[in-house]
Amino acid sequence: MREVDYNIIVDNVARLCMEANYYLGEDVIDGLKSSLKNEDSEIAKNIINQILRNAEIARDEKVPLCQDCGFTVVFLELGTEVRVKGSITEAINDGVRKGYTEGYLRKSILADPIRGGNTQDNTPAIIHTNFVPGDKIKITIAPKGGGSENMSAVKMGKPADGIEGIKDFVVEQVIRAKANPCPPIVVGVGIGGTFEYVTYLAKKALLRNIGERNPDPFYAEVEKELLERINKTGIGPMGLGGRTTALDVFIEVHPRHIASFPAAVNINCHSARHKSVII
Amino acid sequence: MPEEIKLTTPLSDQDIMKLKIGDRVLISGKILTGRDSAHKRLFELAEKGEPLPIEIKGQIIYYVGPAPAKPGKVIGSAGPTTSYRMDPYTPLLLKLGLKGMIGKGQRGPEVREAMKKFKAVYFAATGGAGALIAQCIKSARIVAYEDLGPEAIRELVVEDFPVIVANDVYGGDLYDAGIEKFRRD
User: Fold this and answer.
1) Contacts of B34 (CB under 8 A, 6+ apart)
2) First and final C-alpha spacing in chain A
3) CA A248, CA A186: separation in Å to the nearest integer?
4) Partner residue opposite B183 with nearest CB, options A54, A232, A240
5) CA A147/CA B87 separation, integer angstroms
6) Are residues A9 and A95 in the same domain?
7) Whole domain around residue A171: which residue ranges?
8) Where does the Fe-S hydro-lyase tartrate dehydratase alpha-type catalytic domain start and stop, copy by copy (chain A) (predicted)?
9) By CA distance, what is A239's nearest residue in B?
C-alpha cells in the first residue's frame, strides 16, 4: 500500500484553490473569444471583452477572477492501493483553509445555515469521493459561486416526459435564471439515478472542458441542440441581450428506476473554475 | 458605437435625465457600497424617520462584497452582486434622494416604478469582472457599520468605472429590451 504524507495533500489543495480562482481555463477563454464572432450586439461584445481582460488581470496580479471565491467543491478519486497518513478529509480542509487565507480569497461560508457565523476560512469543503483502482489520488477543486448555484434546480419528472421534457426543463430553467447566474453560463445537466445522485451528476458535468462532448453520440446531439436553443433565448452576456447565453451544455447520465425520471440543472457562471492534480 | 459618457458624482437630475438604456458610462468620484445587511439597517432608520449615518442625496450605491485586499492594494476583487435582493429596501432610499445604483441582474417592478418617480438610474456592471473593476477603485474607507465586515458601508473613490445604463428615468429596461431584440424563436 502506497502512503502519501498529510502535508502533500494540504499543499496541493491550497495551491489548487488559489490557481482555480486566479486562472481562468484556456477552454473558457477560447470559448469566450470564439463567441465574439457570433455577437452583433456591441454591448455583448463589450462585456465579453471585459471578461477576457478581467482574466488577464487576475492571472497577472494573482487576484481572484471574481470576489465570490465560491463554496469549495472537491472531487476526489481515491485509488484503493493508496492511503494518506492521517485523515484525508482533514487534510483537504486544512488545504482549503491555507489556500483561502494565504491567497486573499473571500470567505463565504456560514457555519450554521440559519444562525450564521462565518467560518472565516471557507471550510468545510464539500467533498465527493469515488474509489478507483490503482495507487493514485486525483483531486479536483471546483469553487462554486452563489449567484449561479441559486439558479439551479432538480425535477422528479415522469418517464412519459421523455428526452423532450428534459430539454424543455433545461431551457426553461435558463430562461427563469436570466441575468442572475452571470451569463455566458455553462450548463450541467444530470439525468437518471436518484434524487440526490442526479444533482451530483449535474455538478460533475461542469468539470468538463468547453467543447468536450458526451462520448455517447445520442447525448452529444442533445447537448448541441440544447446549446443552440439556449443561445436563441436572447438573454446574452450579463442578461443584457445577445447570442452568447451559454458557452456549453454538458449532460451526465446514470441508470434510473423504472418509476423515476430525475433531471437536474446546475448552472455555472462564466468563471467556470476547476483545477486538478494527480498525486 | 457611441462614445462612452463620463459622469462624476454626485449626480444631479440633469445628469440622470440625459441617460438612456444601453448607454455606456464611465463613473468617477465618490460612491458608496452597500449590500444586504447594510440596506436592512438603512431602511429601518429611514422608516422611523431617523437620520442615516451617510448622506445618500445625489449618491450612487454599489452592491458589492469585495475580496480581501492583498498587501499594498486598496481593495480585493470587487465585482457587483445580484441586485434583486436589495429591492425591498430600494424605493425608500430613492425617495430620500439616492440617484443611482450599480449591480447586476434585473430589478423588480416596484424599483423600476420608483426610479421613474424619483428620477434615478440603475447601472449594470459586469458580474465576475471583479479584478478589472478593482483597478478602477483608487481608495476605500469604511464610513458606517464597521461591525458588518465585508458588508460594511464603504466610500470608494473610483475612476472610469465602466457600467451600462440598465434602467433609465423613462421606464426603459435593458434586460427586457435586450432579450426582445436578440430572441430567435
Assistant:
1) B42, B61, B62, B63, B86, B151, B153
2) 14
3) 5
4) A232
5) 16
6) yes
7) 147-271
8) 11-277
9) B175
Nine cell digits for residue A227: 446549446
| 3 state SS of A153 | strand
Segment B77-130, tens digit of pLDDT: 999 999 999 999 999 999 999 999 999 999 999 999 999 999 999 999 999 999
- In chain A, the number of structural domains is 2
What DSSP designation does B87 have? Answer: G
Q: Is residue A50 part of a domain?
A: no
Cα(A183)–Cα(A241) distance, integer angstroms: 10
Residues A124, A200 within the same domain: no
Mind listing the pLDDT tens digit for each residue in B20-63? Answer: 999 999 999 999 999 998 999 999 999 999 999 999 999 999 99
A128 and A8 in one domain? yes
**What would the DSSP string read from start to end of B126-158?**
-TT-HHHHHTTEEEEEEEE-GGGGGGSEEEEEE
**A15 and A129 assigned to the same domain:** yes
Answer yes or no: is pLDDT of B1 > 70. Answer: no
Please state, as a whole number, how many other Cβ atoms lie within 10 Å of the Cβ of residue B71: 5
CA-based radius of gyration for chain B:
16
Tally the domains of chain B: 1
Sort A269 into a burial class: Cβ within 10 Å, 0-12 / 13-18 / 19+.
Answer: buried
A57 vs B131: CB contact, 8 Å cut-off? yes
CA distance, residue B138 to nearest chain A CA (Å):
16
- Put simply, the answer to whether B128 touches A182 (Cβ < 8 Å) is yes
Chain A positions touching B84 (Cβ under 8 A) are: 180
Question: Which of B67, B132, B181 lies at the smallest CB-CB distance from A234?
Answer: B181
Here the ipTM equals 0.93
Q: What is the DSSP string of A122-137?
A: -PPPEEEEEEESSS-E
pTM over 0.90: yes
At A53, give phi and psi (nearest 5°).
-65, -40
For residue A54, is it within any domain? no
pLDDT band at A116 (very low <50, low <70, confident <90, very high): confident
What phi and psi, each to the nearest 5 degrees, are found at residue B87?
Answer: -55, -40
Q: How far apart are CA A73 and CA A76, in angstroms?
A: 10
Residues B137 and B64: their CA atoms lie apart, in Å, by: 12
Assigned domain for A28 exists? no
Which residues of chain B neighbour A68 with C-beta distances below 8 Å?
79, 81
